């Protein structure tokens, strides 16, 4: 689940008064908004079941026959009809000869079907404490622990089951679960590389002339759009350490950068590290992540910062997921006494329409405060996304972002309060069965437009096609 967090910092360019253009006006960075993480551990596929017989009987006849109720309870469990269990158990429990093991087992099945994993797991642990030889109960307990993301406890139960003499197909399924659990504990590495051919690497306005009162000034060529060819790179390394039950230690390091071989003064690298606590179960995830970040520009250290990030995800249903994030950070600059304080409030809603289509939308607020009044601003963003699997192995991902950034103080030159309107469109296409040295090639179109009320300094638009190579280790 994660994206790099860096902040857009745009300050006034006062060319004619001799002030240097801020490096940050040239950086094109992404904000780590709350985006859904779709890569959930999937349980192994269940073995196919034989067709079940159909019974026709009314409640009065059924309630008079406890042996038949037992059959119906087992049938409801085997056919995954947990919604029938409360009524069947109500009829069954009144009989003195009712099997207490079956009752507690069925109650656990129903609790799990309602998303109450804690109750289901408690039921089965109590059963195993009294009857440790109940293999079926132990297997269900291991499954529920897995689904509730208690991977260490699930692994322990599956290993105990592996020591039993069971049918080969059951051992095969246990092996699948253990393999999936081991993959959750592995170091996850993602790497991406793309070719860059950018006609505006400094994100500058192409307006050559500046008008003040009735005078015309020529902008310094250094502050016009600069060209560059090179590569962008993206390396993410993360690992989860299951401490106990739902509690995890989370470690992540993300490195992002651009290298222009014909314009190295605009090369940049950013590194961000998280180390903190994560709680997760079948329904939601919460993380408290202290962070540290560094930024290099033109091969020199530019800034460093630290902060805290809170993340919360919750599955509202099988199709809807809510993802939120709050981040507070402080950034200082190597060659300046400037200090920036940032607050990010972000939320996204994911809708999985079916196995081939998902939609998401989100809203974000970025508040930036500084000891330099001119650089203080509020940014408001809306995001929409659509990911689709098409025929012939084709996939697409469309992401649209609209933003409005309002500054708090007047621009030194124009003496008006700066306001920028932003639009970003990213369209990525790839073929799911195409691989090159285990890398997935993707074609991406990117469009970005900034419409500022101080256009001679801050307005620009650019578009480009990129060839991406991505791989997950």
TrEMBL record:
Residues 1-22 form the signal peptide. This is Tetratricopeptide repeat protein. Keywords: Cell outer membrane, Membrane, Signal, Transmembrane, Transmembrane beta strand. It is found in: Cell outer membrane. It holds the Pfam family TPR_Slam. The lineage of its organism: Bacteria, Pseudomonadati, Pseudomonadota, Gammaproteobacteria, Pasteurellales. Its main location: membrane. Belongs to the Slam family.
């Amino acid at each position: 689940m994660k994206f790099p967090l860096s902040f857009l910092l745009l300050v006034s360019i006062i060319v004619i008064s001799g002030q240097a253009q801020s490096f940050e006006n040239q950086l094109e960075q992404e904000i780590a908004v709350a985006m859904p993480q779709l890569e959930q551990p999937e349980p192994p596929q269940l073995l196919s079941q034989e067709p079940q017989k159909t019974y026709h009987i009314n409640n009065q006849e059924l309630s008079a026959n406890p042996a038949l109720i037992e059959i119906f309870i087992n049938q409801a469990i085997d056919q995954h009809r947990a919604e029938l269990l409360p009524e069947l158990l109500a009829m069954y429990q009144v009989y003195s000869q009712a099997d207490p093991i079956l009752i507690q087992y069925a109650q656990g099945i129903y609790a799990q079907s309602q998303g109450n994993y804690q109750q289901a797991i408690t039921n089965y642990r109590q059963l195993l404490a009294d009857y440790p030889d109940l293999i079926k109960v132990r297997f269900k307990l291991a499954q529920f622990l897995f689904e509730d993301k208690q991977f260490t406890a699930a692994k322990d139960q599956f290993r105990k089951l592996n020591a039993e003499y069971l049918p080969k197909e059951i051992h095969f399924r246990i092996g699948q679960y253990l393999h999936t659990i081991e993959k959750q504990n592995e170091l996850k590495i993602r790497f991406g590389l793309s070719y860059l051919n950018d006609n505006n690497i400094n994100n500058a306005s192409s307006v050559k002339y500046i008008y003040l009162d009735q005078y015309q000034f020529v902008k310094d060529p250094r502050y016009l759009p600069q060209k560059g060819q090179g590569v962008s790179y993206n390396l993410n390394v993360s690992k989860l350490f299951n401490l106990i039950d739902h509690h995890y230690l989370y470690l992540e390091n993300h490195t992002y950068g651009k290298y222009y071989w014909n314009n190295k003064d605009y090369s940049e690298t950013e590194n961000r590290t998280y180390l903190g606590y994560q709680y997760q179960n079948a329904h939601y995830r919460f993380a408290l992540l202290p962070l540290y970040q560094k930024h290099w520009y033109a091969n020199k250290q530019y800034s460093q910062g630290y902060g805290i990030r809170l993340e919360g995800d919750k599955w509202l249903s099988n199709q809807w997921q809510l993802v939120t994030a709050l981040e507070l950070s402080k950034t200082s600059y190597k060659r300046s006494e400037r200090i920036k304080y940032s607050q990010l409030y972000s939320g996204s809603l994911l809708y999985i329409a079916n196995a081939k289509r998902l939609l998401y939308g989100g809203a974000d607020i970025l508040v930036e405060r500084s000891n330099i009044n001119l650089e203080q601003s509020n940014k408001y963003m809306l995001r929409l996304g659509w990911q689709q699997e098409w025929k012939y192995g084709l996939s697409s991902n469309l992401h649209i972002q609209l933003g409005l950034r309002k500054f708090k103080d007047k621009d030194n030159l124009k003496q008006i309060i700066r306001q920028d309107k932003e639009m970003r469109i990213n369209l990525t296409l790839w073929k799911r069965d195409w691989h090159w040295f285990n890398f997935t090639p993707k074609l991406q179109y990117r469009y970005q437009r900034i419409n500022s009320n101080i256009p001679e300094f801050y307005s620009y638009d650019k578009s480009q096609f990129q060839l991406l190579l991505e791989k997950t280790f």
